[in-house]
Fold each of these.
Amino acid sequence: MPSTPPLLLRCPVCGGPLYGSENPGASRGALVCGAGHSFDAARQGYYNLLVGKGTVFEADSAEMVASRFNFLDAGHYRPLAEAVAGTIARMVTPRGEFTVLDSGTGTGQYLRVVLDEVRRTTERCTAVALDISKFALRRAARINPEALCLVCDVWQPLPLADAAVDAVMVIFAPRNAAEFARVLRPRGRLVVVTPRAGHLAAVAESTGMLSIEDDKDTRLAGALAAHFVPDSAQDIDIRMMLTPAQIADLAFMGPAGHHLDRAALASGLGAGDAAAAVDAMFRITVFRLATDAS
Ligand SMILES: C[S@@+](CC[C@H](N)C(=O)[O-])C[C@H]1O[C@@H](n2cnc3c(N)ncnc32)[C@H](O)[C@@H]1O
Ligand SMILES: [Zn+2]
């Protein structure tokens, strides 16, 4: 059972504080608010906090999530995960309390690496993982049993209290700047991972992936500017040797997976184990709140 510190969660119906209830016999209790709104844990351990109609969206399918899990599990992006973990762990005070939100956590594999790193400095860490795809959260909940895994829409008010979080991490996922600013503590940090121009260029065309534009950085800072200012940035380049099956997973795990047929994609890439060089090019940008003068 993940701990649910009082005053961290907010009821998505009425906005009141949401608490973990003890539920004898069950591995995880429901989340309940003072007005009686109650959210049961799914068998896999996550909570569905989606209410109302919400945003029209196309959640990642089980097949896309499986492709992402397999690709990340093979360790191709491990240097990125370690760099994000190092960035966040440097924000932690030894033995201090620390709360991290992974927004658009997907399969939760980056969060796992982050939590393992943070735990080297403090055991008093609370993690919240949110995503709109229950297929993704099933996996995230399994590998991060200590985290609160919440199905919710990042474009709706987040089910978190004001100024409750030390770090928000967003890896290739949508960014709701106003809500991230609201839930961050005054000295908190937003950690954003984006692709740089040239990312996966060798396979973008043959797999129907969008190529990355040069001005992405300027656009990122512009989109967040009302609430955040860039603090620091680190570039991570990874040269990968990928088989056709791995390239198919790579293409299918991203937005292109919504409009590609995986079988057709895989057969178009050819069979066999001949590996091709593919360069992944990322930027980790750390933002502080515009109201933080430090
Ligand atoms: C490209 S994936 C990245 C996942 C993970 N951070 C990673 O890098 O492996 C984008 C994620 O954002 C989630 N997502 C998309 N729209 C969302 C929304 N409106 N609210 C919450 N999550 C959303 C998707 O379900 C998906 O898991
Ligand atoms: Zn309520």
Amino acid sequence: MSIMASIVTFANKKGGSGKTSTVVNTGGVLGQRGYRVLLVDLDPQAHLSFWSGVNTYDTYLSVYDALLGKCSPKDTLYKTEHGLYDVLPASTSFSSGFIKQLLDKPNPEGCLTKVLMDFKNDYDYILIDTPPTVAALTLNALAASGYVMIPILLNFLAIEGLAQLTQTIYRINAAFNPDLRMSGIIPNQYDIRSNHSKRVIKEIHENFGDALISPRIRNDIKIAEAPEYRIPINLFAPHSRGCMDFNLLADFILEKIKSGRGESK
Ligand SMILES: Nc1ncnc2c1ncn2[C@@H]1O[C@H](COP(=O)(O)OP(=O)(O)O)[C@@H](O)[C@H]1O
Ligand SMILES: [Mg+2]
């Protein structure tokens, strides 16, 4: 008996909303709880890979090589020193030529789905970090996932971004992945003393319902400092606010996935 990995994409076209921080720290927390976790870095900035210890200026096989079928997916796997999760790394040597080659493939949005087949039996959770740009990569992530979570900063444009993302998810449901569901909105760097943030979160509650909104991640400098040490917050600052918040977020995500089980992805 083997349970296949649940696949969760973290998306938001807005840079700086907390995608990378959320994927790494949630991955760290889940790993510490004994789950087998794989993080997939699709962002050519390769911040997740760097944070995980990959020397991103070296030459190595990346997830992009796997997507194009240039190597066996398992050849790209990077094992972290701390062992809380493994990584399929991005590469900063990503080029526009890559996108051209991807789009020339017969089923361009299904390439990541195919790559992840090789890993689904080895992990409990696969968390995917997406780039702010390069729509073809985010599309691959959403096509491969059962769940999408959206970290947001609580300014007014966030609501507009959420509306757009909801549209995108519906289109993907119709076109190639009926299983994908919007499973969470993650308020990041939420300051409850700010009246503006309070108004925005109220509006989101009204539009999306209470069940979809995760516990907030507070502003914590430890979250910003951890990448320098190449470890997630639960190793870097186990007694921090940030570590506490990511544990509560992990509870929320596990609960969402448990209630969504029975899906094929
Ligand atoms: N809750 C937080 N507290 C403090 N700094 C944060 C927090 N969340 C994110 N940051 C910082 O904000 C910046 C953007 O976050 P990041 O996770 O890289 O966003 P994205 O991947 O969406 O671009 C980073 O410098 C990160 O360290
Ligand atoms: Mg990022």
